[in-house]
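EI: anyone free to look at a 180-residue chain?
SC: sure, send it
EI:
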Amino acid sequence: LRSLIERDPQWGWLLAPAPDLVGINPGDFFPGSGDEHGLSSTWTLQGTQYIRGWIAEVRSAAGKGVALPVLDNFEKQHAEMRQSAWLKFTLWLSQQPTTSWRRDQWTDVLLDIAAGSGPVMRVFRQANEQLADIPDKETRSWLRQVRQLVDLQATSVSGVLAQKVSHGKNRIHQDLFAWL
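SC: here you go
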């Protein structure tokens, strides 16, 4: 088993996309981007859980006390590889032309931006969610910034909602007193 694992130090067998898992597509964020150049399910949270399951099975099959340095090395580098894949994906998305969007697509995007859920924020939220299992001490600076931005946006949105609720509550009280 050990020699079989060590035949592929690039972990191709472990990084192959899981057949039942869905990757992340550019069209999920930017209209008309299609599904080309999507992010493989390998780099999603579900893909990570799938990989961890394989590693656990291999370690179990190898038996206690059997050193598997190739897997040890993989586990040390996996969080970095996921972050690199997500960074590459977000950078690719940022370079896509928007000039081919139809008028209705532009309208939808602008309304989403006004509501705080434009394409870029959706990408950031998705990256934050999919990489949430990576401890802060192992995150790259771009992911730390994404996490801060997502937290800031969530805080500001909840603050705006609280303000609107408070304003609505005050208005109801005013209307009730005026009616009485």
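EI: The two ends are 82 Å apart (CA to CA).
SC: 👍
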